[in-house]
Design a protein that fits this description.
The chain is an alpha+beta fold and 106 residues long. The protein has a domain at 24-95. It is 27% helix and 39% strand. It contains 2 helices and 5 strands; from the N terminus they run H-E-E-E-E-E-H. It has helices at 2-19, 85-95; strands at residues 24-28, 35-42, 45-61, 64-72, 78-79. A hairpin with a 2-residue loop joins strand 3 (45-61) and strand 4. The radius of gyration is 25 Å and the shape is rod-shaped. InterPro entries: TTHA0802/YceI-like_sf.
Amino acid sequence: MKKQLLILFLFLISLLFFSFSILSNTYRVSSDDSSVTWQGSKTGGTHTGTILIQAGNLFTENNKIIGGNIDINMYSIICLDIQERENTQKLEEHLTSSEVCGFTCV
């Protein structure tokens, strides 16, 4: 009888442990299928474009994102709303310059 109670007790304890376990996962961001969309504003208008993602991971617990890291290549910035290639190139060079945002390439 004591042995059966001990087995039942251990079984119930194991159920308690597993019922409160946290469901956590790590998801890899697909660099081939993902990009960052940006929008910049200036006096008199805005510009939009994309930046390529090099790599990344998202961390979840109980189906909620709790963290992550994403590496982006700022030199891959593309402006999508300017038709003239020369003006697009000027803006892209300006956006990757140190006068707009100081970043380092690693």
